[in-house]
Structures are given as structure tokens and as C-alpha cells.
Amino acid sequence: MTSTATAAPTAVVFDLEPAARRLARLVEGVPAARLDAATPCDDFTVRDLLAHLCGLTAAFRAAAKKQPHPAAEAGAEAGAGSPALPADWRHRLPRQLAELADSWHRHDAWDGTTAAGGTTLPAGVAAQIALDELVLHGWDLARATGQPFDCDKPSLQVVYALLAPEADNPARAPMFGPVVDVPNGSPFLDRVVGLGGRDPKWSLGA
Questions:
Q1: What residue ranges do the domains of the chain occupy?
Q2: Taking a C-beta distance cutoff of 8 angstroms, is the pair 183, 191 a contact?
Q3: How far is CA 29 from the centre of its chain?
Q4: pLDDT classification of 12: cutoffs 50, 70, 90
Q5: Span 104-123, pLDDT tens digits
Q6: Beta strand 119-122 with 113-116: parallel, antiparallel or unpaired?
Q7: What is the DSSP string of 18-36?
Q8: What residues does 122 pair with on adjacent strands?
Q9: Does domain 17-195 correspond to CATH entry 1.20.120.450?
Q10: Is 114 in contact with 121 (CB distance < 8 Å)?
Q11: Which of 8, 10, 58, 60 could disulfide-link 130, Cβ–Cβ 3.0 to 4.6 Å?
């Protein structure tokens, strides 16, 4: 019998489907005229953000299945050199988002470790990062394309649990960006967005 001192912590299982469905709806509402517009993500246009989402949804779908996916993982990394946006993105992204959510419905997806973005990590942490990407980039896409955004509280709680412990960490991962302080009493969504390195007041033309 494995002792409790050496047993791996049990992952807290949550559902990525609400965030995936919400992001799919936002993708469907992207105006073609906004593809080269700025987003709250520094150095990302809407086109870049959509290409990034194509890569990360494939990468974290593969992570749930414990299947290496080097090409997708390369596409999931932020910054310069992002891959070109596929011509079929309006159809591909909603499909990949649905597949991503479904892949994390598998019980064995949460077991052990997996790899994403070239890093080996506990499967449950990979799922947290995947949800963080869906929520924050959903907010980014909504703001950049003039669409409304709301988020279910369970998803926000998972993302908050990922981001809050790192808020004062000088070695905070660059993917999150510097924390943006928000006023006391701000909505929970604004607090999570600020922890994710976004200014909740960001808007088109600002």
C-alpha cells in the first residue's frame, strides 16, 4: 500500500465545457474586419490570438490524452513567431474547443503527469492552465471584437486558484504578464482578469 506521505495529490476535477462553449460563440461572432485589430494581449492582433487558440486547443487536447503534440505545443506559445491563422479557423476552432472539453471529461485525463508547451507537469495543473487560457483569451477576444463577455463562477474560481498564489512571485511565468491592480470591491471577473495581467478597463480604441 502506498503511504500517504508519498502519494500524489488528487487533482480537483472541473469542467472545461462552459468556457469552451462560450469561447466558441465568441469565435463565431468575430467580424472579418477586426482580424488585424489590437487585443488586450501585447503584440497580439485578433488574427494572432485566433491562431494562438488554434494551437493551444490542440496542445491541451493532446495533453489530456497523454499524447505528445509538438506542432500544436509550438503554436500554443505566446509571442512573436506565432503560426499563421488557418483559412478554416471559423470551423476549426469551435470543433477543437469541443474536442478539448470532451477530452478532459475522461477520468484518466486527470491521472499522473502530462506535457504541454514542452513542459511536463501534473495533469490537473495542465487542465487549470487550459481553462485559464480559455477564460482569459475569451475575455481578450470579446474586448477586441466588441462582444459581451461573462463567465461562470466555477471557471473563475479555478483560474483564480491558479493565478492568485503567483501574484507576488517575482519569478511569475511571463505568459501571465504583470498583475494589474484593481479597486477593492471590483467584480470577481475584474479581479481575475487583473491577476492575469489585463486591465479590466481595456476597450476598443482606448
A1: 17-195
A2: no
A3: 19
A4: confident
A5: 999 999 999 999 888 899 99
A6: antiparallel
A7: HHHHHHHHHHHT--GGGTT
A8: 113
A9: yes
A10: yes
A11: 60
